Amino acid sequence: LIISMQYPEPKSTAAGSRMLQIISLLKSYGYEIHFASTQPKSKYSADLSSYGLDTSLIKINDGYFDTFIKKLKPDAVIFDRFMTEEQFGWRIDEHCPKALKILDTEDLHFLREWRERQVNSDGHINLPKRLNDIALRELAAIYRCDWTLMISKVEIEILTKTYGISKHVLFYLPFVYKTKDLLDDKTPPYEERSHFVSI
After folding, report:
1. Is the whole model's pTM more than 0.90, yes or no?
2. Which residue from 48, 25, 54, 66 is spatially nearest to 149, judged by alpha carbons?
């Protein structure tokens, strides 16, 4: 079971592309996947039925989720970001205590916030030893899960060296692209290309 606050939107967010990569990876290993979202589909949402997924609309703080999860009985649950784990993790613990709990950080939100402060400040700001609310919440979600998917080796280093998170619960899973899938019929072969663009 994948629980998210919204359906993946690969054409509008990198997080949407990453979620589809995770789904494709799990499908390639033969897993049956169910996707549950707290928000309805939008015109930008990926068609998850084309991936062979069952989908459900769920609500936060709603007893129906307990019935839903007891009936589904997932072997593993992936939480799309720490906010989702906060809302639904304790219900998984209560009704499916044997389920493997996996947190997909997308990227560390407290680190993103710290980098924003760095850009907006005149001087260098060290990573805080005293954690703000977002950092406390995100680190607590990591501790509550069996595994955490990490997109960056630098983030793994920060979590292990600065905050003492065990490297055994952090799983490095960067963006996964098949290069040929990124090219279309109009893309010239490698030998005919030159230069590059960096964003």
Report:
1. no
2. 25
Place of tokens 């954690």: 131
Amino acid at 152: S
The Cα–Cα gap between 23 and 61 comes to 26
Model confidence over 89-142: pLDDT tens digits?
999 999 999 999 999 998 888 888 888 877 787 766 666 666 788 889 999 999
Radius of gyration (C-alpha) of the chain in whole angstroms: 19
How does DSSP classify residue 191? G
d(CA 9, CA 46): 6
Whole-angstrom distance, CA of residue 191 vs CA of residue 177 = 21
CA distance to 184, 193, 196, per residue, from 179 (Å): 10, 15, 16
Nearest CA-CA partner of 106 in 1, 194, 6:
6
Residues with Cβ within 8 Å of 88's Cβ and at least 6 positions away in sequence, in order, are 3, 65, 77, 79
| pLDDT over 70 percentage in the chain | 92
Q: In the structure encoding, which two tokens stand for residue 142, read together?
A: 């990591």
CA distance linking residue 56 with residue 71, whole number of Å: 13
Report the distance separating Cα 39 and Cα 104, nearest Å: 18
pLDDT surpassing 80 at residue 177 = no
